[in-house]
Amino acid sequence: TEAPQDGMSAFGKMVPADFVNRDVIIPSFNAEGRKSSELHAETLTRIDDDRLQGGKIHIEIYAAEPAQNIRVDLISAVHHMTDQILRSGERSVVRRADFETSGDSMVFDARTSIGSMKGRVRTLIFDTGALSGKSGK
Fold first, then answer.
1. What is the DSSP secondary structure assignment for residue 4, as one 8-state letter?
2. What's the CA gap between 13 and 30, in Å, rounded?
3. What is the spatial distance between Cα 61 and Cα 71, in angstroms, rounded to a whole number?
4. Statement: the pTM of the whole predicted model exceeds 0.85
5. Under 8 Å between Cβ of 40 and 25
6. Is 38 helix (H, G, I), strand (E, B) or coil?
7. Which parts of the chain fold into alpha helices (H)?
8. I want to staple 52 with a disulfide (CB 3.0 to 4.6 A). Which of 74, 79, 90, 127 is the partner?
């Protein structure tokens, strides 16, 4: 069976093949109508019936608490619309108020919300008090 359509896949199906879209912003909303994420891409191109290719992408994923928001920065990536898998073969960075993880390549499955990084992976953990509220002086 075909995977359910997310915001990126629904948008991608409307884009003519080989047409380069510039300065794209794609919001996604949860069931309550609150914005759950927003994708910004300098370029976004539908390369065939199932794939979108983007350049200079950043994705904001909004949480109930702003300190838990996540930002993903990608130099380039390909989104497979049917499988809802985002792949980047270049240095990628994932940030939140309490950590930053970067790696030479990244794969993210939007259906399961599970991702992985490979290559020179580096994780920095900052003061966790930003989330717990128990930060000392």
1. P
2. 20
3. 6
4. no
5. yes
6. strand
7. 7-14, 129-132
8. 79
* Closest residue by Cα to residue 42 from 22, 20, 64: 22
Tens-digit pLDDT profile for residues 9-53? 677 777 778 889 999 998 888 889 999 999 999 999 999 989 999
Mean pLDDT of the chain: 87
Q: How many helices (H) and strands (E) does the chain have?
A: 2, 10
Contact predicate 58/74, CB 8 Å: yes
CB within 8 A of 19, min separation 6: which ones?
Answer: 45, 46
Q: What is the pLDDT of residue 129?
A: 64
67-75, Cβ contacts within 8 angstroms, sequence gap of 24 or more: 67/96, 67/97, 67/98, 67/130, 67/131, 68/96, 68/97, 68/131, 69/96, 69/97, 70/94, 70/95, 70/96, 71/95, 71/96, 72/108, 74/106
Q: Token pair 């069931």 is at which residue?
A: 31
